[in-house]
UniProtKB/TrEMBL annotation:
Start and end residues of each ABC transporter domain: 3-218
Organism domain of life: Bacteria
GO cellular component: plasma membrane
PANTHER family given in the database record: ATP-BINDING COMPONENT OF ABC TRANSPORTER-RELATED, IMPORT ATP-BINDING PROTEIN
Presence of keyword ATP-binding: yes
Pfam families, alphabetized: ABC_tran
Alphabetical keyword list: ATP-binding, Nucleotide-binding
GO molecular function: ATP binding; ATP hydrolysis activity; transmembrane transporter activity
Full protein name: Putative ABC transport system ATP-binding protein
Coiled coil: none
Length: 219
């Protein structure tokens, strides 16, 4: 999915200083893009705009030939469910559901028909041991929760995957292992990937990297 942004202007309150001001930016279909910058400077805000969670009506945001800024809130929700996978920084798993039910719920919300075999195949590929598949999400390690969050996003077979700094709590070895898995799965499925983090060492995993400061024209 090609993503195109023009004249993006966003502020949380009317008449306040803009949080984001991006004149023009494009992500080609199938690209992997890394955006880096300090915490609190608008990286998560940008992801939430591209996911259609935050409306940005005064901007032009086109995804796969469709204008996100022209959609109603319900249309954006439907578009996100069908085309966008989102891995949140805090994972947002449902703690009392087991791994398989967490993933199945994501597929159901997106109206994607998936079998138990589809789910277990993805869990195996992400190296999540079968011994924990029936465990509630709350009982998983941080690394396991992270991979479940990725599986939940990928099970929808998204065209566009947004990943919000999920490696901050991992040591270097686990971080690198996670990144290798993520990149391989996106490449295998031709998923357009946008990943944001303050950790500039992650740039080496991506085709393209850019600082938010260079994109954002807020003075």
């Amino acid at each position: 999915m090609t993503v195109s942004v023009k004249n993006l202007q966003f502020q949380y309150k009317a008449n306040a200083k803009p949080t984001l001001s991006i004149p023009e930016w494009q992500i080609p279909t199938g690209a992997s893009v890394f955006i880096y910058g300090p915490s609190g400077h608008g990286k998560s805000t940008l992801l939430n705009i591209l996911a259609g969670i935050l409306p940005c009506k005064q901007s032009e945001i086109e995804m796969g030939g469709q204008r996100l800024d022209k959609m109603s809130a319900r249309q954006r929700d439907r578009f996100r469910a069908r085309h966008i996978g989102y891995v949140f920084q805090q994972f947002n798993l449902i703690n009392y559901l087991n791994i398989i039910d967490n993933i199945k719920l994501a597929a159901d919300v997106a109206h994607k028909k998936v079998s138990r075999h589809d789910i277990t195949q993805l869990l195996t590929a992400l190296q999540i041991p079968e011994s924990v598949w029936q465990h509630p999400a709350a009982q998983l390690s941080i690394g396991q929760q992270q991979r479940v969050a990725i599986a939940r996003a990928l099970i929808k077979q998204p065209d566009f995957l947004l990943v919000d700094e999920p490696t901050s709590s991992l040591d270097k070895n686990n971080r690198d292992a996670f990144m290798q898995l993520l990149m391989r799965h996106c490449e295998d499925r031709d998923v357009t990937l946008l990943f944001v983090s303050h950790d500039e060492q992650l740039q080496r995993f991506f085709e393209h990297s850019v600082s938010l400061e260079s994109l954002n024209q807020v003075n």
